[in-house]
Design brief:
The protein is α/β, with parallel strands linked by helices. The protein has a domain at 6-201 and 232-262 and 318-334: 3-Layer(aba) Sandwich (Rossmann fold), CATH 3.40.50.720. The chain is 41% helix and 17% strand. The strands form three sheets. Strands 3-2-1-4-5-6-10 form a seven-stranded parallel beta sheet, with helices on both faces. It has a three-stranded mixed beta sheet with strand order 7-9-11. The chain has a two-stranded parallel ribbon with strand order 8-12. α9 packs across α11. The longest helix is centred in the first third of the chain and has 25 residues, at 98-122. It starts with 5 loop residues before the first strand and ends with a helix. The protein binds nicotinamide-adenine-dinucleotide. Nicotinamide-adenine-dinucleotide (NAD) is lined by residues 10-11, 13-17, 36-40, 42-43, 63-65, 85-89, 104, 108, 139, 141, 170, 193, 195-196, 202. Its EC number is 4.2.1.46. One of its GO terms (biological process) is nucleotide-sugar metabolic process. It catalyses: dTDP-alpha-D-glucose = dTDP-4-dehydro-6-deoxy-alpha-D-glucose + H2O.
Amino acid sequence: KSSNSNILITGGAGFIGSNFIPYFLEKYPNYKLINLDLLTYAGNLENLKEVEEHPRYKFIKGNICNRELVEYIFKEYDIRGVIHFAAESHVDNSIKNPGVFVETNVNGTYTLIDVAKNYWMEKPFTYKKEYENCRFHHISTDEVYGTLGETGLFTEETPYAPNSPYSASKASSDMIVRSYHHTYGLNTIITNCSNNYGPKQHDEKLIPTIIRNALQGNPIPIYGDGKNIRDWLYILDHCKGIDLAYHKGKAGETYNIGGRNERTNIYIAEKICEILDELLPIEKNKKFNSSSIIHHPSSYKSLITFVPDRPGHDRRYAIDATKIEKELGWKADENFESGIVKTVKWYLEKYL
Ligand code: NAD
């Protein structure tokens, strides 16, 4: 890999990208990162304030579906690697409005990888190796594998069986990336990760929703019976996994990244309430002293309210991360109980 690389990061103003960019800039002093982000409702430049003025960071507002713009960026910055986060990412939104998921996740990924392939293939590289070193890393989800019963884990060999328009669009984009490796010899990597949590996540997602509603004394909505299981991955553990896969992963391979932290949604809600009970007991929370709340419950747990289930709600996801652990030496540093305390502390600052 060229030691002075310009790398295109897409969707860097979103949750994962905005955690990844500062981490990556600091770790690799030879990289310049160009962040292409449309700033949809999910993108927030506030999350990148710490790197705004960084000499090796450049932000470009734009759409990954805009071929002319993407071509311009490749030429202007002589891009030698791509780490592709940009996507529509919220399952509930994909149920209401699937079209934009197909547009961004499928067409956007196609546009990006096609421009990358053309640019790198047409470049008058002196050595074939230079083409082979230009990596296209696609960030995907374990939701492409569908749902699990009580037992079993998703491996890289699990057949794709997406159930929501979101996961179907991600599955389609994975297939496009796969085909560019097999057809054009492009140096691709796909990582499929489980549910991330940590600082900077959009308010709409489960954990910020639980924390925000609890702090404001509002009902904490939990879908169905709360027994759906997700495998939780602390954001910085994910960033380290991406870093390893980008640098050491074998071209054309897929790596699953999961924290081996299966928890039910109701456990998560109760755990967060317990942490809040310690960090900010209800009697010290000013929101509970407003006239609209007459009875003070003793724990935030009393705010938990079950709401009708999401259509097509997958019951259980869980990842077998053996491949990335064994082949690349990755391992999660946080378990859910340690990572969630850090997360709640961050949101306490944000919401109060
Ligand atoms: P996010 O929704 O927080 O951020 C997505 C970013 O992409 C936003 O900044 C948005 O403005 C940008 N974007 C959207 N459409 C765009 C377009 N057409 N052109 C350019 N930019 C556009 O998402 P996230 O949680 O950071 O997820 C990043 C990636 O990781 C996604 O591909 C997602 O599918 C995948 N993923 C996320 C999780 C998770 O738990 N968050 C789990 C598995 C996989």
